[in-house]
Amino acid sequence: MLSDNQLLKAKKLFEISKNSTFYRGKYINYEELKDYEDFFKIPILSKDEIIGREHHLLTKDYNQNNIIEDYTSGTTGKAMTCYHSIKERNYKAYKLWKNRRKNANILPLDKRALFSPYYAFLEGEKIFFDDEDNDLYLSNINMTDEDMKDYFNALVEFKPKWFTSVPSALYLFSNYILREKLNVEEIGLEMIEVNGEMLFDYQKNIIEEVFGKILFNHYGSRETWCLAYSCKYGNLHGYDEDFIYELINIDTEGIGELVVTDLCNNTWPLLRYNLGDKVKLLSHDCGCGNNSIILDVVGGRKQEDFEIDGWIGNSVIFHYSVSRINSEFGHSIKQYQIIQQASNSFLINIVKGHGYQTLHGELLVKEILSKIPIGINIMLNYVKEIENTGNKFIYFKKEVNHNDKR
Ligand SMILES: [Zn+2]
């Protein structure tokens, strides 16, 4: 159900969207949004409809000089251009910074360290200080023990107030700190913000064990920017005044694909846009006093689904299998990547962690086999490191091409 405020904003957005060539064609039968029911009759918008025609969504009054472009990373092979006006971007940035200020009094020019491959690609530098923004860049595509030793020393010297990272890199770094028994007090961090990937409980537990309860989760997308931000109770709150959150294709456990309407982008309207993330929506009260809807991001994106002879699974099951082994055997699997080489065959690349034994790999295979159809071949392959080629770590790759059955 929508609030009156959401409906009012949705009506306005719907009218504005009629100014774009894309929506004019799509909503030919939708004259006007009168009530809640009309809103839910708007057809769901898919990524596939937009790709290659992104600029057709722009509403006619946009000003070319006033527009910001973002590019989705295209992990599924299809990149997309997204647009905001400068004013809209500033509004969204303001909302995000409000959270950071509330959680740990973080301000835009405070010293920040971050895991990012940006300067490693641009300058070939593993560690790079950007003095304009007061940011210390550490390359998450270089994560050997030696690299991490250098990072730790650089952090102790720089003393950042906060840190941003994808969970996968910070998880590796936390394990390193734990193993080497380093003292994080020497860094003096006041807040950590993870973003860009789903945060798994096994990662959260280790990161908090090492750094304390200063971890916050920023959940968003390039298309919409920040969609939800966690509070000190660990609940991921949405912004009810800025977005409408819905689920479609809901399973028996209440998990569905997240569909959002962005109420603060009139430049490039997204109405009932299917982001594809697997989410549960909870709306119970939270001790922090924020009444906005709570999102539980439980699984990988729909795009990370894989198929075995008509059976559909999501790559998130591999995460849960690995985390089960790691919680039992003290993080003996340092890193992993799964490649579906054929419909019935998977290769698992494993970087051995401290205390790894062959038995752990065998148990992992057994665990995965118990979750997928029978007759599947899984091979383990031990590697020294797994190359990370971008900002996000790719846990799962498909080398098999299924025919498009739509
Ligand atoms: Zn809360």
UniProtKB/TrEMBL annotation:
Xref: InterPro entries: ANL_N_sf (IPR042099), CapK_Type1_Caps_Biosynth (IPR053158)
Protein name: Phenylacetate-CoA ligase
Protein source organism: Metasolibacillus meyeri
PANTHER family reported in the protein's UniProt record: CAPSULAR POLYSACCHARIDE BIOSYNTHESIS PROTEIN
Coiled coil: none
Gene3D superfamilies per record: N-terminal domain of ligase-like
Domain of life of the organism encoding this protein: Bacteria
